[in-house]
Task: inverse folding
């Protein structure tokens, strides 16, 4: 008997959102995994509604919604990004009935969007089991079990455990295919301007503010030929823009990214690559910078986070100022323009003064690169989360909605709003002149 499964990516609920090559890759990996079994798949991405701009990025369609009570005092508009609720209801109506539903969750502070999607699904598919997975489900299993009406909260990456869960829900998945299909072979999206690529899972570093090791227990890199097959398949569909989702794309560069880029260059594909996740500057040498240029990297983001040496060491030592300077030098020598090289620095880290953030901005101005200020917000389960709890800044049962990086630093970092605004303006003006 064929099991009919519906996979859903709920809306983003936030003060601001922009589609920088975002796809629900975890859910798409679930879909790929399920193609081995006697299943028919249906797919709804509530966020698949945006106006395409440069390189496939775009502005989401959005509607202003009422803020939950807990956000009432924040003087900003709260929005739901993606398709409307009525469009969602139309889509699920057209599916008639299903045997099983998977819902993903990405940022923990979007959990109200997850809850809304599940309430609608429950109403339409009364007795159908629902499994919730994804990042919020993994980091906040108990919270999700308590606050969202689902049959099972699944933690971590998709693997054979999922089959056991499906069986406990009374269904009988049978393996009928040895090989999984790729998600993009299933025509889930009517228009694909870009594709996400994941060439490795996890990260060998353990930065105290990062959830990477909580979401993937080990660091593994995929086989180069398999990655090439995937890129070629997508390229054959007309896709030219690819966004790497890896946490440590450049790690072990000699056996991973360098041979991969050499093959792409050999094949003479006209690809454009983007790295919305920060890259490790440490691993960029002259050869790698050259290969990146030749293979078509267009959007580069490097992670610095802070210019303060003591804090760099305390936060895991993934990069030094000298390593960043050297990487920028090699990238520029390879032909990248200043505005193609972006560097992330954070503000709002525990104990971080605004002076430290300003020093980081000045450092990057001298390097003549795009500056990306990112707000810190603590992630449950990380070392910094524990520190915040221990020092009484937050409580362990803080509503995940308050970990929204657009508001966390405003509420908890203690910076002068005026000073921060001035700094952001200064950074914007600098970036515009690059
Ligand atoms: S290097 Fe990046 S991905 Fe890895 S643990 Fe640190 S912040 Fe996370």
Result:
């Amino acid at each position: 008997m064929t099991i009919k499964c519906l996979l859903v990516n709920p809306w983003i609920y936030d003060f601001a959102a922009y589609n920088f090559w975002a796809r629900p890759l975890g859910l798409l990996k679930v879909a790929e995994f399920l193609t081995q079994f006697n299943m028919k798949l249906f797919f709804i991405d509530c966020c698949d509604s945006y106006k395409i701009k440069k390189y496939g990025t775009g502005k989401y369609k959005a509607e202003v919604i009422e803020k939950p009570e807990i956000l009432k005092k924040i003087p900003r508009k709260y929005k739901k990004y993606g398709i409307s609720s009525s469009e969602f209801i139309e889509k699920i109506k057209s599916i008639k009935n299903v045997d099983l539903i998977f819902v993903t969750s990405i940022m923990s502070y979007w959990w109200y969007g997850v809850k809304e999607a599940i309430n609608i699904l429950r109403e339409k598919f009364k007795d159908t089991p629902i499994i919730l997975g994804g990042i919020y489900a993994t980091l906040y299993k108990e919270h999700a079990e308590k606050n969202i009406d689902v049959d099972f909260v699944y933690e971590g990456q998709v693997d054979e455990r999922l089959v056991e869960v499906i069986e406990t829900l009374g269904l009988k998945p049978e393996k009928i295919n040895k090989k999984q299909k790729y998600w993009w072979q299933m025509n889930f999206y009517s228009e694909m301007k870009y594709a996400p690529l994941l060439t490795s899972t996890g990260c060998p570093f353990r930065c105290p503010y990062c959830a990477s090791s909580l979401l993937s227990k080990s660091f593994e890199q995929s086989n180069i030929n398999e990655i090439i097959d995937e890129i070629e398949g997508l390229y054959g569909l007309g896709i030219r823009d690819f966004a790497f989702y890896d946490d440590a794309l450049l790690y072990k560069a000699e056996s991973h990214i360098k041979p991969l880029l050499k093959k792409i260059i050999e094949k003479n594909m006209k690809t454009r690559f983007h790295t919305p996740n920060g890259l490790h500057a440490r691993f960029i040498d002259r050869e790698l910078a050259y290969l990146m240029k030749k293979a078509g990297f267009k959007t580069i983001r490097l992670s610095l986070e802070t210019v303060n040496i003591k804090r760099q060491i305390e936060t895991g030592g993934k990069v030094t100022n000298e390593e960043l300077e050297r990487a920028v030098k090699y990238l520029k020598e390879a032909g990248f323009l200043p505005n193609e090289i972006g560097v992330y620095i954070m503000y709002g880290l525990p104990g971080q003064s605004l002076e430290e953030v300003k020093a980081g901005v000045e450092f990057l101005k001298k390097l003549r690169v795009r500056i990306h200020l990112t707000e810190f917000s603590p992630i449950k389960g990380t070392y910094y989360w524990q520190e915040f709890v221990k020092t009484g800044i937050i409580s362990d049962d803080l509503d995940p909605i308050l970990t929204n990086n657009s508001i966390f630093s405003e509420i908890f970092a203690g910076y002068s709003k005026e000073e921060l605004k001035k700094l952001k303006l200064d950074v914007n003006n600098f970036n515009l002149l690059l």
Observations:
- The domain at 192-376+413-433 is CATH 3.80.30.20 (pyruvate-formate lyase- activating enzyme).
- The chain has a mean pLDDT of 95.
- Residues 203, 205-207, 210, 212, 247-248, 316, 318 surround iron/sulfur cluster (CB under 6 Å).
- DSSP finds 16 helices and 18 strands in the chain.
